[in-house]
């Protein structure tokens, strides 16, 4: 008999906390997706969660998403969400294996994805990444620049714009983190009122292992949780090859 890794129990515990946070905020738990982020973790844990009913997983690195996509080819209903910064030379891989991309922040990347998606004959759900904390180390657009990108995306028929994504400031002060989420909510309202903006903005991908309950209170519809589900990862320097393109998003 196989020994359980505990990943399913941890996932269910996080889901219970997500549901409780929804009820506390007066929201229906079905409104909030729990996206397990499996970066640097073995594909066997993904298989355990899939067997328990989980169907969508997040990956920061394109090459890791591709590898795990190949390793789970026998699970055709498993979906991959690429949530990390994308270089244009990886657009082909995202167009081929991803069900969604959560970190779109430039016309250049949009154009590269559009070309590859057209060649693949498929579309892709995308979120626009907002740098809500103003940190230079983070990718994403400043809030005031997001509407201009949203308008330009109307020219890309293969990109289905579905919402906004952000990483809040890594602060122990709730007010600082809340302000990040509220800035994204403000951008969401601007885009909903802008009839030139491409797509729809019902989805907000906000919140990670340390702040997802606050994100839910602020309107998040997708929380990206890695450590609380899959366990601690080694120090970043121990796997620096995973991070040539930017910071963590879970």
Strand arrangement, largest sheet?
A: 2-3-4-5-6-7
Can you tell me the CATH topology? TIM Barrel
- The rough form would be described as globular
Determine the N-to-C terminus distance: 32 Å
> In percent, how helical is the residue content?
25-40%
Structural class: alpha/beta
Précis, in short:
This protein has 250 residues and is of the alpha/beta class.
Give your account of this protein's structure.
The protein is α/β, with parallel strands linked by helices. The chain has a single domain, classed as TIM Barrel (Alpha-Beta Barrel), CATH 3.20.20.10. The chain is built from nine helices and eight strands. It has helices at residues 7-24, 43-51, 62-71, 91-97, 107-120, 146-152, 174-192, 212-217, 227-230, and strands at 33-36, 56-59, 79-82, 100-104, 124-130, 159-166, 203-205, 222-225. Helix 4 (91-97) packs across helix 5 (107-120).
